[in-house]
Every structure is written in C-alpha cells, then in structure tokens.
Design goal:
Bound molecules: zinc ion
Number of domains: 1
Helix content: 25-40%
CATH architecture: Alpha-Beta Barrel
Largest sheet: 6 strands, parallel
Strand content: 5-15%
Strand order of the largest sheet: 8-9-10-11-12-13
Distance between the termini: 27 Å
Structural class: alpha/beta
Shape: globular
Number of helices: 12
CATH topology: TIM Barrel
Number of strands: 14
Oligomer: single chain
C-alpha cells in the first residue's frame, strides 16, 4: 500500500471561500488578498494532489452569512479549470421560509453559463428538511443539469443551535432515492453518527456517495481515527467502498494551512489507517481501494 502513487483529488473543500455577511460577498478572485493560483498548484504538485473541489456555503437563514459565493466559486474555477472543480451553493427556502426562486435561477445560471459542476445543500444549517417537497425543484434541476448534490446531513461540532440534529436525520435522504432515483449525491462526513444507516442506503442506491472529511483533523474532538477505520471496514462489508472518497473540508484562503492540512491527512491515510483497520480486525485497504478513496471514486461522482 505504501508504494502506490496516484494523482490525489481533494473531493470536498471550501478553499478560497471564507465567511462574509450575506450582503457583502466576494465575487472575484481579485478580492482575495494575495491570490496566486500558480503558487498553490505548484505546491499541490509536490504532494501529489492533482485536483481539488471547492464550494461556497449559504447560511443566510439562520446565520446571515455565506462562505464565499456562487460568483466567486465560478471565478476560482476559471483560474485553473483543469484542476479545480467548483460548485454552487443554495438555501432552497428564504428567510420567510418561502421557496427561494431567485436562488434556483442563480444556481441554474451558475451551472449553464459559468460552468459550475455541482451544488451544496446544508439542511441543518438552514433549519429545513431535505425531504421537504418545497426543496424538490432543486433536485429536479440537478437531475436536468446532470450535476451532483453534496449534503451536509450529519452532526456538527459546536453550538447545537447551528446544526439541530432533527434536520440531519439521515433516513430523510431515503425519500430522495425513491423520488429521484437518478439524482447523484454525496453525504458528507460519512453521515455521522448515522454511518451504518447511510451505508445501507448506499447499498441499494448506486448514485449515493459519501466522503471522509473531518475524521482525522487536528482538533482532538473532531479527530476520530478509529471510527474512520471502522467505517471504511463497514463500507467494504456493505459493498459500497468504491463510493467513499477523501476530502479535506479546508475552509480559508491560507495556502500554507491548506497544504499542511492535506499533508497531515494524507500522511495519516498512507501510514496509520491500515494499522488501525487491522487492529479492529479489518484487512487494510488494497492498492486499488486506496486509489479509489483518494482519486477515482469522486471523479465517477462528478463525471
Ligand atoms: Zn464542508
């Protein structure tokens, strides 16, 4: 396993997308201090990372802010389209809990005209349910456009008000696999703490994926290396390991921080994960399983 070299893909990040009030969003890379995509790409080359995904996140309803913006996301992708896969973000309901038609049109334009490649929805941040029929036009649009949706649909460390678990219950997504069988979607963070339920949904729904973001981060409360090892072992037993992928979930504009985070996490996956899996009684990842986790699986989701 240690000898395998693959072009690594960071399948989930918010690189260059930072917090800002909803009425003061950046829309071009010119507004990012010291933006130098050539420098970042050269440093990613050195650690074997060939592509990364980045996405904004709308949190207008509860927090009155975004990470990045849809326009900024498009401009980031424009700066290196072969190596950056950028998504849009949306809250399907507005602050008055009415259907957010303006955002639906914005997402459609961002994909058709600006070439964004997917959509992020974060129901617990926005205090709505993913199977609420008012959200369905966004799923219809994603199927029409052929783009994947990423969901934050899990627990989140920090204040419970920011992410009430009732909006994250994982089996709400089962309705989507019934009503939109062709919708491709990723459930971030292995849907913790409902990982086994998610894996069972994945076992019967071939277009549902999951990422391992935030399992081996530096902050102790968020670092759960043995759970990562267990979850990958379970994913193999459910026959869905080829739909699990790596993502850093980096948020920010600091190239040093981003490259260091990637280095730490990829180092863990290469040198520690196999031992942890064996300790728990699971065979370590094979070379091809590792290559899938680090690169191939997410690229199948993006198409
Ligand atoms: Zn994220």
């Amino acid at each position: 396993m240690g000898g395998v070299t693959v072009d690594i893909v960071d399948g989930h990040s918010h690189a260059y997308q930072t917090f800002a009030p909803s009425d003061r969003l950046k829309s071009t890379v010119g507004e990012i201090e010291g933006y130098d995509i050539g420098d970042l790409l050269a440093r990613l080359d050195k650690i074997g990372v060939s592509r990364f995904q980045t996405m904004p996140q709308e949190m207008t309803r509860v927090q009155g802010q975004w990470l990045g913006s849809n326009k900024l996301s498009a401009d980031i992708q424009r700066s290196a389209p072969g190596r950056i896969v950028a998504f849009a973000a949306a809250e399907p309901l507005d602050r008055a809990s009415a259907f957010n038609r303006a955002r639906l049109l914005e997402v459609e334009r961002a994909v058709r005209e600006d070439g964004l490649r997917g959509l992020l929805l974060t129901p617990p941040y926005g205090h709505y349910y993913s199977n609420d029929k008012r959200v369905y036009p966004f799923y219809e649009l994603a199927v029409d456009l052929g783009i994947p949706i990423y969901f934050h649909h899990s627990h989140m460390f920090g204040s419970s008000r920011q992410c009430p678990l009732k909006y994250a219950r994982i089996w709400l997504l089962d309705d989507l696999t019934i009503d939109f069988p062709d919708l491709r979607f990723n459930v971030e963070h292995m849907g913790y703490p409902w990982t086994e339920v998610l894996l069972s949904i994945m076992a019967r729904s071939p277009y549902v994926y999951t990422d391992i973001a935030m399992f081996v981060g530096q902050e102790p409360a968020m670092s759960r290396p043995l759970l990562l090892a267990r979850n990958l072992g379970m994913a193999r037993e459910y026959g869905v390991l080829d739909r699990v992928f790596y993502g850093s979930d980096y948020v920010g504009e600091n190239v040093d921080e981003y490259v260091n985070l990637l280095g730490t996490e990829l180092g863990h996956i290469r040198s520690r994960l196999g031992h942890d899996m064996e300790r728990l009684g699971y065979p370590p990842l094979t070379d091809s399983e590792l290559e899938g986790l680090l690169a191939a699986n997410v690229q199948r989701l993006w198409r």
